[in-house]
Amino acid sequence: MCDCEGAPLPSMQPAVKPVVVVHGGAWAIPAGMSEACTNGVKAAALGAFRVLKRGGTALDAVETAVRALEDDPAFDAGRGSVLNAGGEVELDAVVMDGRTLAAGAVSCVRNIANPVTLARAVMEKTDHVMLTDRGANLFADSVGVATVPSDALVTEHEREEWERHQQYSLGVKSLFNSRWDHDTVGAVALDCHGDVACATSTGGIRNKMVGRVGDSPIIGCGGYADNRVGAVSCTGHGESIMKVTLASRILFHIEQGRGPSEAVESCLQYMAERVKGGGGVIAVTRSGDWVARFTTERMAWAAAEGDVLSYGLDPEEVIRERLPL
User: Fold this and answer.
1) Measured between alpha carbons, how far is 46 from 217 in angstroms, rounded to an integer?
2) Do the beta carbons of residue 246 and residue 267 sit within 8 Å?
């Protein structure tokens, strides 16, 4: 393992400058949550960047970032998850290693505070890519992934909102397009070895059917990573993202020579026009160029590279700060 601030890699090639980008979900973030969401993505990016600066892998960095967001009740993942139609929490997550194309995912898991870590265990300790529902929880028990009481994953505010929304006959897409629902978290990273990785995690959409799985744990939809191109993590209306295989579509456009900003914007526009879906994307290329874009009202995001922390919430907003020493 190299120290990114130390000597060159054994191959004598200069170390790549690491970068990490995180998002806290693309949705209509209300004013009362804007500070918490902004602070949460900044903290997650800083924590992940420290991993990279120590010479850690891109995979370690994205897991670190997403675990931080899963532990933050401001976000719809882990301890801030929304409730399904049955009043239960069902969680989805994916991780992917761009060096080998190895991937791991879980869907409809319960009582797991950090499903991104369980997804990584699926990747590293099984011959499979995805485990779901009871099987995923049985696997978690077998490898010692800690479980928590269901109530630990639900805030009092979410319980109140869920009960209030039982009075309405709104579908999940209507809820997504309102100020009543929040969404996925994710991270992408490039490490000093030149490897990329992605991770995405979610509690889904409030009032979803029991057993519903969205885009987040599906490779090529909620995320994708390939050292030959880059890494992507998506957020937004899951059914729309799946219909256009958003993550892999973006990387295909980059592979064909488009810049990351152009690729992301054109694919988000295509999703809006073709299936009327809104969402957001973070991406990093193998050369370290990165982008954060969204078509929803807001998306909390942050990126760390060099000595700069960039972040934003509103469309076209980019705030830059010097990274703390």
Assistant:
1) 24
2) yes
Distance CA(157)–CA(33), nearest Å, equals 12
β pairing state of 196-202 and 91-97? antiparallel
The residue with tokens 């190895």 is 102
Q: List the one residue out of 143, 145, 87, 95 whose CA is nearest residue 116.
A: 95
**Choice among 38, 57, 117, 184 that is catalytic:** 184
Which structure tokens are listed for 41?
A: 């993505």
Mean pLDDT confidence for 20-41: 96
CA distances from 12 to 7, 15, 114, 228, 248 (A): 9, 9, 38, 20, 32
Residues 41 and 218: their CA atoms lie apart, in Å, by 23
What would the mean pLDDT of 222-234 be, rounded to a whole number? 98
What confidence tens digit (pLDDT) does each residue in 41-86 have? 999 999 999 999 999 999 999 999 999 999 999 999 999 999 998 9
Residues 6+ apart with CB under 8 A from 143: 121, 125
How are the residues of the chain apportioned to helix, strand and coil, as percentages rounded to the nearest 5? 35, 25, 40
DSSP state of 219: B
Going edge to edge, which strands form the sheet with 230-236?
A: 223-226, 230-236, 279-285, 290-294
For 90-111, the pLDDT digits (tens) are 999 999 999 999 999 999 999 9
Residue 183's pLDDT band (cuts 50, 70, 90): confident
Q: Is 147 a catalytic residue?
A: no
pTM higher than 0.90 = yes
Rounded to 10°, the helix 133-142/115-125 angle is: 80
3-class secondary-structure state, position 93:
strand
